[in-house]
Amino acid sequence: MAYYRPPGPPPDPALVKSLIQQQQEMRLRVRAEPLAREPCLIAGCDSSFPTPDTILSVFVVLKFPSLKLVEKVCNYGIVDMPYVPGFLSFREAPNVIHAFAKLENKPDVIMVDGHGIAHPRRMGIAAHLGVLLDLPTFGVAKQKLTGTFQEPGLERGSITPLTDAKTGELIGEVVRSKDKVLPLFVSPGHRCDQATATRLALACLRGYKLPEPTRLADYWAEQFKKEVR
Fold first, then answer.
1. Annotated binding residue 108
2. What pTM was computed for the model?
3. Which of 15, 95, 173, 188 is positioned for an S-S bond with 192, CB 3.0–4.6 A?
């Protein structure tokens, strides 16, 4: 996800308290489990902020395992939620849900450009969306948000664990998606487990750093932006 981080005063403590409570309640609904069956359709999801007050959310749906593009949609809207560090999912989720509603082909699993449980409160955007949609989701992020890890080997497919610095809990895996490029951070969201998330991320690589679902979501986001500017 491409986040807009505006300067400004500290967030309202009452708002932060409310958001923490909502995340804690949603976290109780998150389930880590393998997919019931191999997916036929996999979606990629990405959001960006063309202006400080607007958001563009994109879904692409691909056949799996061929990764042939089936459908692409976007939704452009106004952002009502102020920027609060650690709670960006609340800025994005409403518009992402609107974009999802436009899909004619509903996916079996969603790959989100962002984190799943690899979040300080285990509720990154992939987990957040998974709970709201009650669909299998996982996150593929380009940067670490929390946790500790050792650098994976330089070869494509090298993997190391991402763990909570205090508890040692496994919260994701660090995956080298292409030889000698910076790794990706893969974590389950909802109704998905770590093994499934990493396996699908690797299965969707086609020579680029990013797996095809999120790579194409990012590509089409740039195309759709030209229409709303």
1. no
2. 0.94
3. 188
